[in-house]
Automatic annotation (TrEMBL):
Residues 398-436 are annotated as: Disordered. Belongs to the DEAD box helicase family. It comes from Kitasatospora phosalacinea. One of its GO terms (cellular component) is cytosol. Residues 408-419 have a biased composition (Basic residues). The lineage of its organism: Bacteria, Bacillati, Actinomycetota, Actinomycetes, Kitasatosporales. Residues 237-385 form the Helicase C-terminal domain. Keywords: ATP-binding, Helicase, Hydrolase, Nucleotide-binding. This is DEAD/DEAH box helicase. The keyword Nucleotide-binding applies. Residues 10-38 form the DEAD-box RNA helicase Q domain. Residues 41-214 form the Helicase ATP-binding domain.
Length: 436
């Protein structure tokens, strides 16, 4: 397996990108490639399969996106037969990828379509019917449309698997395998993942042909631009400590394990004067999109989220992530922390730990390759304020305007598909399974 067949580059000039793309990069302030882009773009633009390892926030989207655009520019898709496919694990990430690539796609006159669950299917099928060269999709909804004959994959010449490890965690790999068996046989595959666990490695070995492998900014590198803190709290004081952190001057994402827990915490924070909102798989896609917009705009200061929504959250300038309990899985810890310290910026990850959670938290952090600073705190402590910016909430109840509620249209289930799932419904309705 060739590990670095092309020299890395410190400029987008001379890579062979379409000339229309270069002024767009300059206008958007993208002047020099991030390491993952410099490493992978020469191989991807040359048509090689690429296996790229880099954590969220390392610049992967442009790394594969510019390659897809360059490899597809000048071609025109027939109705329902896209030429390039980008597969991602969650709706939020699909939206983020589409938004990131749209200015460049427009510059080279390529049409994009976003295919995700949780929103009405009609607009997506119309975009496919008109012809879209590039489709950004989550596996559940795409499998539905393929099964119903509304999207064919036989003309797909470039396939991207983004955050393949997360798709494996969510149980999507059998569906992804089904897609890879349908795309053009002589096509190009670009696989990006923060980790190369057994299932992802097996997928890469089966479908990537002599890939150029680049490990840039590996998952353990998440510690380099972050401060990691474990805060030992007493159970009786934990709720007050959470409220003080949430009332800080600046945005914060707080991670919890359940949808119900997120909703209950938001209700309590609003009552104490903290502008909070919940983001989880129980919300419709329009609600989730609107809540993220409110968070980015500053209408919401504290976002209480579950893991199902975590991978797609990208907010510039976010410098604090709080785990309300230690996550059981070290990968979840790294993915949550990846919401801050993006693209080389600095950030702080704080984990609240009760006495009975201390031993498990130490094991999890060790496995994650993280050495945190451990501090015992109580609400009102100067140390809590120093680490998190905590302050006493006003106590004056506040309300956040409800996100737009648009009920998704449901179509009738059809027979079971080749992917071993109902053709119309994804993998069921639980948030972990139906992240698409």
């Amino acid at each position: 397996m060739d590990r670095s067949p092309h020299p890395h580059t410190d400029s987008f000039d001379g890579l062979g990108l379409p000339e229309e793309v270069l002024p767009v990069l300059a206008r958007r302030g993208v002047r020099t490639p991030f390491p993952i882009q410099a490493a992978t773009l020469p191989d991807a633009l040359a048509g090689r399969d690429v296996l790229g390892r880099g954590r969220t926030g390392s610049g992967k989207t442009l790394a594969f996106g510019l390659a897809v655009l360059a490899r597809t520019a000048g071609r025109r898709a027939e109705p329902r037969r896209p030429l390039a496919l980008v597969l991602v694990p969650t709706r939020e990430l699909a939206q983020q990828v589409t938004e990131a690539l749209t200015p460049y796609a427009q510059a080279v006159r390529l049409r994009t379509a976003t295919v995700v669950g949780g929103v009405p299917v009609r607009r997506q099928t119309q975009a496919l019917e008109r012809g879209a060269e590039i489709v950004v999709a989550t596996p559940g909804r795409l499998a539905d449309l393929v099964e119903r004959g509304l999207c064919g994959l036989d003309a797909v010449a470039v396939t991207v698997l983004d955050e393949a490890d997360r798709m494996a965690d969510m149980g999507f790999l059998p569906t992804v395998t089904g897609f890879l068996e349908q795309v053009a046989e002589d096509g190009q595959t670009l696989l990006f993942s923060a980790t190369l666990d057994r299932d992802v490695d097996r997928l890469a070995r089966r479908f990537l042909k002599d890939p150029a492998t680049h490990a840039v900014d590996p998952s353990a590198g998440v510690v380099s631009t972050m401060e990691h803190h474990v805060l030992h709290v007493r159970r009786a004081d934990k709720d007050a400590a959470i409220a003080h952190i949430a009332a800080r001057d600046g945005k914060v994402i707080m991670f919890t394990d359940t949808k119900g827990g997120a909703d209950r915490l938001v209700e309590a924070l609003l009552a104490k004067g903290v502008r909070a909102a919940a983001l989880h798989g129980g919300k419709s896609q329009p609600q989730r999109t609107r809540t993220l917009e409110q968070f980015r705009a500053g209408q919401v200061a504290a976002l209480v989220a579950t893991d199902v929504a975590a991978r797609g959250i990208h907010v510039d300038g976010l410098d604090l992530v709080v785990n309300l309990d230690p996550p059981a899985d070290p990968k979840d810890y790294l993915h949550r922390g990846g919401r801050t310290a993006r693209a080389g910026a600095s950030g702080t990850v704080v984990t609240l730990v009760l006495p009975e959670q201390r031993r498990g938290a130490v094991r999890m952090m060790t496995t994650a390759g993280v050495t945190p600073v451990t501090t015992a705190v109580r609400a009102g402590d100067a140390e809590l304020t120093r680490i998190t910016g905590a302050r006493v909430p006003t106590g004056v109840p506040v309300a956040i305007p409800d996100p737009v509620v648009e009920r998704p249209r449901h179509h009738r289930p059809t027979s079971r598909s080749r992917y071993g799932r109902p053709a119309s419904g994804g993998r069921g309705t639980s948030p972990r399974q139906h992240g698409s």
